[in-house]
Fold this sequence. Notes:
Layout: H1 3-14, H2 23-43, H3 80-97, H4 102-116, H5 143-146, H6 149-158, H7 177-185, H8 197-206, E1 255-257, E2 262-264, H9 271-280, H10 294-301, H11 312-318, E3 325-326, E4 336-340, E5 347-353, E6 356-360, E7 368-372, H12 375-380, E8 383-388
Antiparallel strand pairs: 1-2, 3-8, 4-5, 4-8, 5-6, 6-7
Amino acid sequence: MDQRDVMRGALKATGVVKKGAQLKFGVIALVVFFVGLILLGMFFPAGQATASDCEDTGPGTADASATSDTGGSGTASGTLHEQQVAYAKAIDKQAQKAKLPGRATLIALMTAMQESTMQNLDHGHLDSVGLFQQRPKMGWGTKQQIMTPSFAADSFFLGRGTNDGLVDIKGWQKMPLGTAAQKVQNSAHPELYAGHETAMRKLAKDADIDLERGGSSAGTSADASGDDKPVTSENNGCGVAKPGTGGAGGSAGGKFSDGTQTWKLNNPRSVEDAIAWAKKHSGSGSSNDWYQRCLAFTAIVYGWNVSGVNYAIDHYSVVPKSMQHDGDRHPPAGALMYWDTGHRAGHIAVYLGNGKVASNDILRPGYIDVVDAELFETKWGAKYIGWTPPVFPKAG
């Protein structure tokens, strides 16, 4: 029964819809009804999840198909408690995958209990859906993606599109649990998350979840020991064949010119071959191995096995100053373009010519697509930095 059904029932009960009813008593009853609705909302508020005002390191929000594993798109069955245990396990699985501590799982459980009573809802406030009541219109993904518990949990922990995740909140691991949840959700009722701690500790015990588990506050940038270790082209586990020999490069690189200066390249793959390779492995030819791996992609496009640099944004600075074209929006085909996303890593893409770039995550998380170069600014709110020739001073 939705609110319209309740309203119709209430109006019928007050006699407002009956011909000849006494208006005075109907109005009084209607006022009492609305006061009741307000009180009901205070005790049982609708879940809300709105976007935060900063950008992610790369992932977009689009049409990647949801996975179909039990912890993914499957709807839990059984009693309410059994379903809650199943969803709790799915959430914790993603926390462990991201190498986050048990405290992160607890915050996520408290959040999901407040937002959806730990149910994978296909409805909610406005267009909110799923365990965390994330909104497609606010950039959390498509409805199908958000209804995938593993995808929704990843979004809560790591962020999605222009929305902050838990790991993006500075000092989250030392905040009160409810405060950390609110920093991600931006709820109209920030005080309500904390009240679920005791119940969620019990649920975690029922689900055999170790809330005392250690981990890193930085999420996927952590190694098994808990030490922060940024995701780089060396350790990103990219599931593609190594396309080049690396090392000292090769004669295939050729020359690269901006019309004023000309540079000799030593990449294992020429500019023409690199552009062809990028196009071939974009769109329908793309695997789904590229989530937040923009720097790895650009290095592999040019035949390198590793970029030798930890973050995309840092690659701009390791390129010689004479090759940096700050703010120039007219790069030659094959150039590397850079954006400040508001987060540590930034973003890098390969320019293909005619205003198009090959990039991961912008249309589909984890996939490579050919898009307009300006899309990072209009969709992610990123700030364009400039371009450089396709040089990799630290690559191998």
